[in-house]
Amino acid sequence: MEGEQSRVVVDIFSVCLKEGHRKPQIVQRGLDGIEKLLRVGWIIGHQQEDEVGRLITDLARNPVWDVRDTVMGSVARCFESNENDVQNAVDFATRHDLPKLVLSCLADDEAYVRASALRALERIIVNPAGNLYIQAQIPFSRFIKTVKHVLANTEAFVRRAAWEFVTVLAKKNGVASVFGEDGVGKKEVQGGLADVDWEVRVKVVEGLEVLVGQLGISAGGKDRGREEEVEFWRLGGDALVLQAIKDPSRLVRQAAHHLITHFIQISISSKPQPSQTSPTTNAKRARVTDPRTEAFLMALDDLDLAQLEESTVPEYLYQEALDVDRSVMEEVDARGEGNNVLTCYDC
After folding, report:
1. Which CATH class is domain 1-138?
2. Where is it found, in Gene Ontology cellular component terms (predicted)?
């Protein structure tokens, strides 16, 4: 579709975007249509392109939070990395600074919009062009400061999304930048592990596991000059993991056990092993030169990792109930004794 026909189609969807103050559902339809037009290149370079970009920017500041939330989802879809036809949408989004718009929405008054903005940023970071835009156009100090602020959000589901984003960001851009001295620090990690929401604590442990991957460089001897800068040790990762295995939540302990297994595997691979025994046995025999790794492995030696793993499976919880001492269940108190005897029955 070219010329006058394409202009008419774009105008129709633009009218939908202008209805945001009245009907959010119409805005959704308009954004859906704009996305499809972007993918086939009907807006890029056309005279309506700037108007569409301005309309989307204005919608992100709309007083109706549903509209702002819808815009976050639309921008996120522009950066779908698993699609082959999003390049035009990515070009449009970066030309009109939509990633900056998403970042600003981390301070939105509505928690749902903040969570949607975090998910949109995750899509942007995963997309190579989006990640390049973030690194080139947004000062990292400002970027990470904004993200750190959301880690302490009042809503648990926002904190979950924030920690998930931090983990993805560390995987894509390196743990040194995200968890470095100016990034997410010990205070934030300790606060996350003490969160009242168990899902937040799980995501914090998963973030720590990304740091474990960096140990493969230091312990393997490929970059020993950076040993003192390894973020896992700087944040006190060993103590944090030992704290996580005592968590009352089964799934937090499960994440911690997975991290420990990863740590042991890296420790084993740091030097040739003399035998083909179990990974745990080899980890106890194969000590690496880094004293911090050595000390952590010694602390893990004192743990019953098999019992820890067993305690993370659902069947273990049911078995605990079945293993209750029968004599305790059949115990009978004398009349007038026992804290659980109602007065009306003690007569």
Report:
1. mainly alpha
2. cytoplasm; nucleus
In contact, 178 and 138? CB cutoff 8 Å: no
User: Contacts by 16-21 with C-beta closer than 8 Å and gap 24+?
Assistant: 17/52, 17/55, 17/56, 17/59, 18/55, 20/59, 20/62, 20/64, 20/67, 21/62, 21/63, 21/64
Is the fold of 1-138 the same as that of 153-323?
Answer: yes
Which residues have C-beta within 8 Å of that of residue 270, sequence separation ≥ 6? Answer: 216, 219, 220, 221, 286, 288
Report yes or no on whether pTM surpasses 0.85.
no
Instruction: Looking at the structure, give the CATH architecture of the domain made up of residues 153-323.
Output: Alpha Horseshoe (1.25)
Where do the structural domains in the chain lie, given as residue ranges?
1-138, 153-323
For residue 118, count CB atoms less than 10 angstroms from its CB and return exposed for 0-12, middle for 13-18, buried for 19 or more. Answer: buried
Cα separation of 319 and 311, whole Å? Answer: 10
Q: State residue 125's pLDDT score.
A: 95
Does pLDDT of 79 surpass 50? Answer: yes
DSSP letter at 272 equals -
